[in-house]
Amino acid sequence: MINYLKALPPNIVYTIASKDSVMRGYDYFYEERLESFRWEHDRSRLTAVVRGSKRSALSYFVDFSVVDDQLEYACNCPIWHHETQCKHVVCALFTIINLLSPLHFRVTKHHPRRLEKLRAALLYDSGRKLQNFR
Asked: Of the residues 40, 69, 80, 128, which has the fewest C-beta atoms closer than 10 A?
């Protein structure tokens, strides 16, 4: 799975969602709303936890998996649809691309220690526990 994520072209986020979702997803990325990653024990699925808006205290779960040799995305928010991705998926993709290729979508205000912990969770987490990094 990680090879599929590494192979993502940076501009993928502009083609999978509406302009509004891309803009809001970028805002979420900029605000560091991706809280954690969790791997399935066999590393067949990666779940990113994205904190929702300030009005709702909810977090949403974005799942990444490979189906028929294609990277698939899914979110448990009410807006998500398999044909057009939501801001949570966009935020997760911006964050993953940034963690794997830091020159893409670089934000100087992001906390380096937090980014290192997220990168470690993305690349090395065993899936046994959910790791939060605020």
From this structure: 69
Please write the tens of the pLDDT for every residue from 8-27: 998 999 999 999 999 999 99
Between 70 and 104, name the one with better pLDDT: 70
Place of tokens 């100087």: 108
Q: Is 65 exposed, middle or buried (0-12, 13-18, 19+ CB in 10 A)?
A: middle
Report how far residue 115's alpha carbon sits from residue 98's, in angstroms, rounded to the nearest whole number. 9
Distance CA 54, CA 41 (A): 32
CA torsion sign, 111 to 72 to 3 to 8? negative
Cα 35 to Cα 3, 70, 119, distances in angstroms: 22, 25, 12
pLDDT digits (tens, 9 = 90+) for 36-86: 999 998 999 999 999 998 776 799 999 999 999 999 999 999 999 888 899
Which run of H or E residues covers position 61?
A: strand 59-67
Q: What is the pTM of this model?
A: 0.86
